[in-house]
Amino acid sequence: MIHFINNIGDYFASNYFDDGFSKKVIEKSGYSHEAIKEINKRMAAVKPHYFKLKQQFIENHLRPKDKVNLTHGFHTKILNALGYDGHQNNYGELFPITYNTVIPVRQILYRGDKPHLMVMEMHAMIKRTAEDQPEGLFEQSYVSEEENGAEKSTKEQKYHRSQWADIFTVPEGMHISPMIINQAVGQIFLLDEYRRPKYILLCAGNQYYLLESENWFRGSYLELDLEALFDDAATNKNDYSVFYLLLGKELLAPTADIVLMESLEEDAHKAAYEVTKDLKEGVIHAVERLANEAVVDLVKQGKQYEDINADWLKEDCLNMVYRLLFLFYAESREDLAILPANDEVYEHGYSLEMLRELEQVPLITESSINGHFFHKSLFQLFDLLHTGYREHWATNKSFKIKHLDSPMFDPKGLHYLNNVKIRNIVWQDVICELSLSKKQQKKGRGRISYANLGINQLGSVYESLLAFRGVLAAVDNIEVHRKKKKNETSEQVVSNDGSFLVPRSRLDEFDHDEIYYKEMADGSEQLKVIPKGSFIYRLNGRDRQKSASYYTPEVLTQTTVKYTLKPILEKLEKGEIKALDLLDLKILEPAMGAAAFHNEVINQLAQAYLTNRQKELNKKIDPNQYQQETQKVKAYIALNNVYGVDINPTAVELGKLSLWLNVIHKDMQTPFFGYRLGEGNAVVGSWLKAYKVKEFSIEPTGTTKKGNTYVKKQWWTKKPEHLKFGKKRILRDEDQIYHFLLPDEDMASSANIKLLKEAYPNKSKRLIERRRDFVQPLDADEINKLKKIANAIDALLIAHYNIQRDIAIITKSNAVFFGSEDIAYKMLDSYSYQQKKEFADNRLKPNAPYYKLKQIMDYWCSLWFWDVRSAEDFPTRAEWYNDLIQILNLDLDNIHQDSPEQLIDEELIKSYRKDKKSIVKQLAEALKQSTSSLFTNQRAQLIQKYAAQYKFFHYELEFIEVFVDRKGFDVAVGNPPWLKITFEEKDLMSEIYPELEIRKISAPKVKKLQAEFLENPSRQDLYFTENIENDASAVFMNAFQNYPLLKGQQTNLYKCVLENGLHWINNDGFLGLIHPEGIYDDPKGYALREEVYKRLRYHFQFQNAFNLFAEVAHREKYGINIYAGKLGIQKFYSINNLFHPATIEGCFIENPTAALEPVQGIKIKDSATGNFVWNTKPHPSRKVLIDEEVLKILAATFENSKNWQGSKLVSIHAKGIVDVIKKIGEFPGKVADIENKISEGWHETNDVTAGFIQRDTKYPDFSKYEMIYSGPHLFVGNPMYKTPRAICVEKADYDIIDLTSIKADYVARTNYTPLNVTAGYGSTIKGFEDENGNWLGYYKVAFRAMLSQAGERTLSGAIIPPKGTHINTIKSIIFKSLHSLIEFSGVTSSIVIDFFIKTIGKAGLYDSSQLLNLPLNINNNYNSALYVRTLLLNCLNTHYAELWEENYDPAFTKDAWSTQDNRLKPFSALSKTWSWNTPLRNYFERRMALVEIDVITAMALGLSLEELILMYNIQFPVLQQNEDDTWYDTKGNIVFTCSKGLTGVGLDRPDWEKIKDLPAGEQYEHTITKSALYNGEKVIYYAPFTKCDRVADYKRAWAHFESRL
Q: pTM for this one?
């Protein structure tokens, strides 16, 4: 139990600040055990000084001034112990607040040029007696009120600045204000950002307060009691260290790379996230429990199971859960005054808290179990919230509740639960699940603190529900899952991998270990059965995949928003815009989910507004009112400026609730978002784009015997012009026609789907024929008709804008908050939520311009998604255009494009805003004058159906006022779905046949199941519908007119959102997206990159090593990307290899000291544990400016191209790497310059099927061409790395080959052998075209085709001999010249070329250019040294004798190692004749050869030693880790290694720990057990054992070769 720390206001979440908190602090600090002991001693030394101070306070009758002086002196000792310079202070110049007010601050410590930590002090809070109650943080003052000019108080004057006279003096004409300590703190935390510290350390003798700027205003801080520390430390000395680590300069002040408190706060957030996981499970349980109870009651009332709508029931139960979550939150926040939580009558008679107190009380009697006390209490509370209680009474002895004008509490919104009674036992269980943490062994269930649970955590709970579906079981069901492993339970399997429901009748079709059995207490099993009629609420993987609804971690949301707003806020700092301008910014979240990005933008904008508005007005907000004012500003932004869309309607509702909870404040009206938060598909819709008439009009070319001929027109292959709004109208020329009025050849693609063509051949044929006619060029009559339709659309757009503008004004939120006096209007009238909804719904009337425009745009979208099964209804072009005329129902001949009405009339708008009633009247008049759409035929119904099904969303129509008034959004931010559009029939069918997912199923079996699946009409309909949706979506997104920048790329939703996003934002706006890195290296992404590089401002590349995204793979890379609306020059900052956003800010801080320190790599060694950990430390060099010069370097180096504007972006860890890349790129020789041939070898699947090779693991006969290499055979410079085991099925079925024990003619096993080897086989695979020689006769440099970016080495290659071939897991290259071959093998064995390949970041050697662009043909000075080491590494058996002997050079014997060591074979012993002794065989000498090849290659390519070390330190973390823990004996054998690539080599760690300190001369005999190849053999290791230092070896080798070459 921690006694010396008070966690005030839950600074740390209660589930994080527990008995293990001290241990967490020490572990997070990274301090070693010895360092902790030293800290304990240092802090313990303060103890006698403290008790001496206390004794003086108690025994001596000290004056206040004496106490202040003694306390100040004691603070000096404490600060010195904490690592500060206690003798230094800033009291010579008190900290200014205004021109005539100051606050005494003892020390200010900066991070960069901004204050980071302030040290302040106050009177000691030492008690003289047990009853003594010293005044504290909220009572103490620096001066008395009288002294500051207030009226004289009758209260004894306790504070006077003269008491501090020996410490500081207040200058003449200045005074201390605020006087009260807590108000002074609040005032400091309200200063401008550049003057405001993040932390304040407040010293009070025996008490120490750690205050953080954001937490302070929600009443949260840490209070550390020194005397209690001494008591606690008597039993646990490490508590001293905890005190030091929390408050000490080393980990709190700005010199630290990562501030410990920030790391702890983040861990606390993670702990809160763990609570949300409990809460998620609780919500799922609650929905199921409520629904099943409702089903029972409904059946009792006479309803049949079949008549109960599962979706309606789910909605009702979710509504109940939302109500409860809202109430938990509202009751925990008394300051909101939503509920009178502090009223005794309410608390004991009505509150949810009253029911929470009964949550674990055993219900024993019949009435307590099956009664309805809970139900009546809850619904009474719901009714009070809906209708209000005594809210208008002037005087009221009892409590009052203001009604919530929200659909959430409207009983009319419930389908079933308003007529159902839920029993006590059920409600108690539901409340338990929502208010208590999960049951744990030997621990009680902790109470979830909703006050401490942030909106982001609640949002993650909400978002977890989005893909859940409610189902009523039609029959008894069982649950099946993948087969259990040994000692695994069904619960564990389902928790990790999910499960499927199947009818109980299929029980015998599944293995026992595939069926969910509950484990009972007595060890027995019980089949889990879901009875018929049960409501099941479960995650639907297919729905989840389609929506891709994964919650974005808060740290990523905050960082994305911060850098999206950064350019805007920089304008504010420069005075280019005003604080009030921030309140006009229109904000879009395109895949809003639970509105996490919305809320973060709102929060950051509100803070920026208040900070800068205070400065502009030269007026400060009362610190006590600051939080309330913040909420009001947040509410204003949310209710007037937030726009969003999500394909999931539940997400939209959750987003509204999340926004409400984030901005809620006292007396706030229920928020109305209306159409601004809408349901829709963010990537399928139409835009205000247009083609010119000449691009699609019929154009005769002449006449032939067959008739007239015409120019072929394919306008859809061209990019339409994106139109803009002017002052009076949309800026469209007469000869421009909207793209959504023209056909495209890819429409109705369902006619091309193979399965549908087979099922509906006639319909498919008809649709294809009609589509052929559909896309012919348009004749003059059609064009004339389209011009009239386009003019009508122009007019409707103006009318729609006017109506939507009026609706926005009517429903606009009030503007009464700090600094809002200059806003041009105040809302004089207010309307209820229902009235606002009715106004907004006006646009949905059939005569409304919006309704007609949406029908026209939906029609065009529907043509893309047309179902072949409705082929007969697909329109001819004439029918389509006639339908459009029916929709318009206007006199087309009397519509003129140049409307006299001005779209934007600011004076008119201002006058409207003063009188809402006139706007309402105008709205009604506008709608009266408009005629309704007459489009009501069969096609109209189909289009309505397609629009509802595919949720077409037309941004410029839905949010027209944004595009007219502001020319687009100012801020668009989000995490769009990372989803490739493909039809996965297995995912669909697995809901009926889960065996497709939980087992391996043969292709014939899958075909059979597909046939059975399609026999059922409803399943067939579902199958075909899904197929059409995926196919049509992919076609739509690949259409050039829709997404011209994505031409040729694989469809991915995030790319579509990105291209759309460039049109969402205005010239002054910014788009911030989290998305994968695919756009930067896509071979077909040049056009997209060329566009985005001119807009990109920040690119932060992450690897998911910390699992910030729980659902994303550990090695997945993604980025935060900030794009500008305005095209500019190519200039953006890029930071790569990030693991946590905390690193970013430190990279932007100008720190001259940090800049002098060497930049560290992807992993660094933890000094405390000795382990290598992911590097999160910032460094100025990590921030790399990518501009034209760098892009040209990348294009030339990696693509051998002069086209740089859209060059691929590689991972550049630090600025210095740019020079390395440039030098490698500028090397004059390339592989492509020398004649070569690259081969992929045998295809291990296709060529087996074709009968060219067979799977046959054996020791091969090289002379019969039987050796076929696979990837695991090779490693860097080692063609005999591993051999397959006799039975080789899994990746692990290989053994490391001991090169010191093999015979001269040893050959590894092969897994494949060739078939049909007959006379002349050797010449069947040709080498070079101009030679008779064959490919098989060449030595080859072979590389593993898969590139292990996360491994010790990425490029793994070696020389393989003639007659050997390989499968396609290897890529090889041959040269006419053996010298070129040896050189290429040598340089590609170096980390220099490996670094080059790593930098590209590809997962495989996919195309030849990766090898062809590599440097070759180095200076002759380096050849001999490189050749001899390359040959000694590769020539390992007799099959290399010819290579050695033909390339032997007598100069080899003159070479020398860069170090003297008996483990290294002397070069002087070499001879031309190859023998077993020729190659390097022990691990030590092979390593040294590779080290020296690294140096030779670096020198040959013009790099420096520092650059070689930089490459090694940055890009080779696993190699560093292995080097650091690989130990050699005196014979060069590896005794122990942590390398995962050398499994079976050396000892296991426990054995190694026993012998590692053996003295010189001793031996250790080891029996091999981990290698099938050498199992049972003995090996002797000779002490002493040593490890290597690669950097030291590089330095030594560099000096060696520099003097010789």
A: 0.86
Residues 6+ apart with CB under 8 A from 1182: 1135, 1136, 1143, 1147, 1159, 1213, 1214
The stretch 776-801 carries a mean pLDDT of 94
Contact partners, residue 275, CB within 8 Å, separation at least 6: 13, 15, 437, 448, 453, 457
Task: Give CA torsion, residues 82, 83, 86, 91, to 10 deg.
Answer: -100
The string of DSSP letters for 1430-1464 reads HHHHH--SGGGHHHHHHH--GGGGG---SS--TTS
Sign, CA torsion 1026/1032/1035/1041 = negative
57, 721, 1057 from 695: Cα distances, Å: 93, 12, 28
1281 with 1272: CB under 8 angstroms? yes
d(CA 1145, CA 1152): 15
Strand pairing category for 175-176 and 101-103:
parallel
Which amino acid appears at position 753 of this protein?
I
Instruction: Name the average pLDDT for the chain.
Output: 88
3-state helix, strand, coil in the chain (%, to 5): 45, 15, 40
Tokens linked to 872: 């007969």
Q: How far apart are CA 1308 and CA 1303, in angstroms?
A: 11
Q: What residues contact 893, with CB distance under 8 A and at least 6 apart?
A: 788
The backbone torsions φ and ψ at residue 1122, rounded to the nearest 5 degrees and listed phi first, read: -115, 120
Comparing 14-18, 377-381, 1323-1327, the range with the smallest average pLDDT is 1323-1327
Half-sphere exposure of 232 (CA within 13 A, CB side): 20
| C-alpha dist (Å) from residue 1201 to 1091, 1191, 1198, 1225, 1413 | 18, 11, 8, 11, 10
Q: For residue 155, what pLDDT is reported?
A: 39
Q: Which amino acid is at 942?
A: L
Spatial distance between the Cα atoms of 1050 and 1088, rounded to a whole number of angstroms? 13
* Angle made by CA atoms 792, 794, 796, in degrees to the nearest 5: 70
Q: Which residues are registered as beta bridge partners of 208?
A: 203, 224
For residues 40 and 45, give the distance between their C-alpha atoms in angstroms, rounded to a whole number: 9
- Note the pLDDT of residue 951: 96
On whether the CB atoms of residues 1139 and 1106 are closer than 8 A, the answer is yes
1327: Cβ–Cβ under 8 A, 6 or more apart, which residues? 1237, 1333, 1334, 1335, 1337, 1338, 1374
| pLDDT tens per residue, range 986-1021 | 888 888 888 888 888 877 888 888 888 888 998 999
Identify any residues that bridge with 501 across adjacent strands, giving them in sequence order. 479
- Interstrand relation of 587-589 and 969-974 (parallel, antiparallel or unpaired): parallel
- At 895 the pLDDT is 67
Helix H or strand E encompassing 77: helix 64-81
- Tokens read off for 1021: 């309909």
What separation in angstroms does the CA of 48 have from each of 5, 45, 125, 237, 1515? 21, 7, 18, 16, 51
Rounded distance, CA 766 to CA 873, Å?
A: 11
Give the CA diameter of the chain.
124
- Rounded to 5 degrees, what are φ and ψ at 952? -55, 140
How far apart are the two ends of the chain, measured CA to CA in Å? 68
Query: Two tokens at 115?
Result: 């204050």
Q: Parse the chain into domains and list their residue ranges.
A: 5-14+26-125+139-256, 268-474+533-539, 689-952, 1107-1226, 1231-1525+1587-1604
Q: Is the peptide bond prior to 178 cis by the omega test (within 30 degrees of 0)?
A: yes
Within 10 angstroms of residue 1304's Cβ, the number of other Cβ atoms is 15
